[in-house]
Design goal:
Layout: H1 2-21, H2 36-89, E1 93-97, E2 103-106, H3 108-114, H4 118-121, H5 132-148, E3 152-161, E4 169-181, E5 187-196, H6 198-245, H7 250-275, E6 283-287, H8 288-305, E7 308-315, E8 320-324, H9 325-341, E9 347-356, E10 359-366, H10 396-406, E11 410-416, E12 420-428, E13 455-459, H11 463-475, E14 479-483, H12 486-495, E15 500-504, H13 512-520, E16 528-532, H14 537-540, E17 550-553, H15 558-569
Parallel strand pairs: 7-9, 13-14, 13-15, 15-16, 16-17
Antiparallel strand pairs: 1-2, 1-5, 3-4, 4-5, 6-8, 9-10, 10-12, 11-12
C-alpha cells in the first residue's frame, strides 16, 4: 500500500515532464503529504508553473520580435525599391561590375542609350561597349579603383559608345567610379556612373566660338574703319593722278597699278566684314561662284605662303543657291581652311564643281595626311578634331554640316591616310538670279541746282579724305567748304546756304547721325550724302526717315562721287 502511494506521484511527475518536453502543458501533481514525496511534488508543481509562465512570456517576446523583423524587412524592401527607383529614373547611366569586370547591374538609361536590354547586358564584358582605345583606359581605371577603393572622376571623357552590332555614337561623358565591398571590406567589384554631357559641352564650345566670332566682328569693324579711310585717300589720289597724267603715260600706269591694288584691298576688307557678320545679309539667291571667289581671295595669300597651289575645275555654270551667303561662305571658309591645315608641308588644293540635275556639287580636295578610317564617322561631330590642342575647336565641320542640312543639302567626306581628303558639298539649285542687295536711298525734297555749280559742305575728321574730295569737287567747278566735325558744320550752316552736304558718319565730338538730326530741325531740304567705311544701322536708325539722299561707302572711287553729284545736278537723287 505504501509502495503504491509512492509510485503514483512519481509516475505523474514523469508524465508531466514528458508533456513539457513535447511542449504541452503538464497537469499539476496533487499530494498533501509532508514527506519527501510531497516536497518533490510541490517542487515539480512550482517548476511547471514557472516554465509555463516563462513560455508565455517567451511567446509574447517572439511575437514582438516577429513584428519588429517584419517591420524592418518592410523598411528594407521600401529602401531597396527607393534606391532601385532612383537608379532606374536617373538621367545618367549606372552599372556595376564584378572583379572580372563583367556587368552585374544595368539601369534603364543604359538600356535606352545603348539599345541593349538589361537581360542582354548582364554577365557581358564591360569593355565590349567601348572602342579599344577608350576600353583600355576605362578598364585600367576600374581595376585601380577596385584595388585602392578610391573614388575616381573623369570629366569630359570623349569616347564612342557602341551597342555591339551598331556603329558607335560619339559622346562626351562625366564618369565616376567607386569600389564595391562586402561587410568584411573585401572588394567585390565597382560601381560606375556615366553622365552624357555632350550637349552641355557643345553649348559651351558654341558659346566660346560665338564669343570669338563676336570679338572678330568687333575687331573687323575697327579694322574696317581704320583701313577704309586710308584706302579712300590712296584710291582718290590715284584717280586724280590718272586724270592728270593719263593712263597711257608711265606715271599714269603706275597710278593705275596703285588704284587696282587699292580696290583689291577694298574687296578684302569687304569680305572680312562679311565673314565677321558686320554686313546685313538675309536669305536670297546666292551666286556660288562669286562666293567661292570671295572666300579664296581671303585665303589665297595664306595658301601661297604655305606652298599650297590652287586648282579650280568648274563644269558649266555653278548655278544659284537660295540661302544665306554669310552662312555658305562660312562653309567654304571652313572647308578650305581645313584643307590648308591638312597640308602643313604644302600640296595641292583642288576645287571642283559640277551641276547634277537639281543639285550643285562642290568638291574640296587636299593632298594632305588624310583621316584614319576609325575617325571618319566622327568628323562631323561637335568639337571632334584631329588637330593639336589649341589649334582647332572641332566646330568647323560640325557647323558646316548643320548649315548644309539647313539649306536642303548635305556634306559628305572621303579620305585615305597619306592620300588626302575630299569634302563634298551638295546643295539644291534655284532658278532665281542672284543680285547684290541694294539699300534704297532716302530722297530729299531739295530742288536741283540747274546752274551745275554747287555750294558743297564737306564734313569729315580725316584731312586726307577732305583733301581728295575737295580736289575732285573743285575740278568739277563746285565751291567747297570744309569742316572737321559736326559742331563746325552746324556753325557753317547758320551763316550760309549749301546745295549739298557730304557728311562722314563716325566723327569725334558730334557724329554724323547727331549732326543730321540737328540739321533737319531747321533744314529739311538740303541733300545729304553719308560717307562711311562701316554702315552702322543702329546709328542710322536714329535719324528721321528721308534725312539723306544716299550712302558713299569708303573707300569709294571718285567716279562714284562724280556719279552722285551728276544725279543731284540733274535732279535724279
Amino acid at each position: 500500500m505504501f509502495l503504491r502511494s509512492a509510485i503514483r506521484p512519481l509516475r505523474q511527475i514523469t508524465l508531466g515532464l514528458r508533456r513539457l518536453a513535447r511542449g504541452e502543458s503538464p497537469e499539476p501533481v496533487h499530494i498533501s503529504s509532508g514527506d519527501e514525496i510531497g516536497v518533490l511534488a510541490e517542487s515539480y508543481n512550482t517548476l511547471t508553473r514557472e516554465l509555463v509562465r516563462s513560455r508565455a512570456e517567451l511567446a509574447v517576446r517572439e511575437q514582438e520580435l516577429e513584428r519588429r523583423v517584419a517591420e524592418r524587412t518592410r523598411e528594407l524592401e521600401l529602401q531597396k525599391l527607393f534606391v532601385e527607383g532612383i537608379v532606374e529614373a536617373a538621367d545618367i547611366g549606372i552599372l556595376t561590375v564584378d572583379l572580372d569586370l563583367k556587368i552585374t547591374s544595368w539601369n534603364s538609361y543604359l538600356e535606352r542609350t545603348l539599345s541593349r536590354s538589361k537581360e542582354a547586358a548582364m554577365g557581358q564584358e564591360f569593355g565590349k561597349y567601348f572602342p579599344m582605345q577608350e576600353r583600355t583606359q576605362l578598364e585600367k581605371t576600374l581595376r585601380e579603383v577596385i584595388q585602392s577603393g578610391e573614388l575616381r572622376i573623369k570629366r569630359d571623357f570623349e569616347c564612342s559608345i557602341t551597342s555591339g552590332d551598331e556603329h558607335g555614337t560619339f559622346t562626351v561623358m562625366d564618369i565616376s567610379v567607386i569600389a564595391l565591398r562586402d561587410t568584411d571590406g573585401t572588394a567585390i567589384g565597382a560601381l560606375m556612373t556615366l553622365g552624357d554631357v555632350t550637349q552641355r559641352k557643345e553649348l559651351h564650345m558654341q558659346l566660346s566660338h560665338s564669343t570669338k566670332l563676336a570679338a572678330v566682328s568687333e575687331l573687323a569693324g575697327g579694322v574696317a574703319h581704320e583701313i577704309n579711310n586710308p584706302l579712300a585717300i590712296i584710291l582718290g589720289n590715284a584717280e586724280l593722278l590718272i586724270d592728270d597724267l593719263g593712263e597711257d603715260s608711265p606715271l599714269g600706269g603706275q597710278a593705275s597699278t596703285i588704284k587696282r591694288h587699292a580696290l583689291r584691298c577694298k574687296g578684302i576688307v569687304a569680305n572680312l566684314l562679311k565673314f565677321a557678320g558686320r554686313t546685313t545679309q538675309g536669305t536670297g539667291p546666292v551666286d556660288l561662284h562669286k562666293l567661292l571667289d570671295e572666300t579664296l581671295t581671303l585665303l589665297r595669300k595664306q595658301l601661297e605662303l604655305d606652298n599650297i597651289s590652287v586648282e579650280e575645275k568648274h563644269t558649266g555654270s555653278m548655278g544659284t543657291i537660295l540661302g544665306s551667303s554669310d552662312e555658305l561662305q562660312q562653309v567654304f571658309f571652313s572647308l578650305i581652311s581645313n584643307a590648308k591645315d591638312a597640308m602643313p608641308k604644302g600640296g595641292t588644293l583642288t576645287i571642283e564643281s559640277v551641276r547634277a540635275g537639281g543639285f550643285m556639287e562642290v568638291k574640296v580636295t587636299d593632298t594632305g595626311h588624310g583621316i584614319p578610317k576609325e575617325n571618319l564617322e566622327r568628323v562631323f561631330s561637335p568639337f571632334f578634331t584631329t588637330k593639336d590642342p589649341g589649334k582647332g575647336t572641332g566646330l568647323g565641320l560640325a557647323i558646316a554640316h548643320t548649315i548644309a542640312n539647313k539649306h536642303g543639302g548635305r556634306l559628305s567626306l572621303e579620305s585615305e591616310v597619306d592620300q588626302g581628303t575630299t569634302v563634298i558639298l551638295r546643295l539644291p539649285v534655284t532658278d532665281a538670279v542672284a543680285d547684290a542687295p541694294a539699300r534704297t536711298p532716302r530722297r530729299s525734297s531739295a530742288p536741283p541746282n540747274k546752274s551745275g555749280k554747287m555750294q558743297v559742305l564737306l564734313v569729315d575728321d580725316e584731312n586726307g579724305i577732305r583733301m581728295v574730295c575737295r580736289e575732285t569737287l573743285e575740278r568739277m567747278h563746285h565751291v567747297v567748304t570744309e569742316c572737321r566735325d559736326g559742331n563746325e558744320a552746324l556753325e557753317q550752316l547758320k551763316g550760309g546756304k549749301f546745295d549739298l552736304i557730304l557728311l562722314d558718319l563716325k566723327m569725334p565730338k558730334m557724329d554724323g547721325a547727331e549732326t543730321l538730326i540737328e540739321l533737319r530741325k531747321t533744314d529739311e531740304t538740303t541733300p545729304v550724302l553719308i560717307m562711311t567705311g562701316l554702315i552702322d544701322e543702329e546709328m542710322l536708325a536714329t535719324v528721321p526717315e528721308g534725312s539723306f539722299a544716299g550712302i558713299l561707302k569708303k573707300p569709294f572711287q571718285m567716279s562714284e562721287l562724280r556719279g552722285w553729284i551728276g544725279k543731284l545736278v540733274q535732279g535724279q537723287a
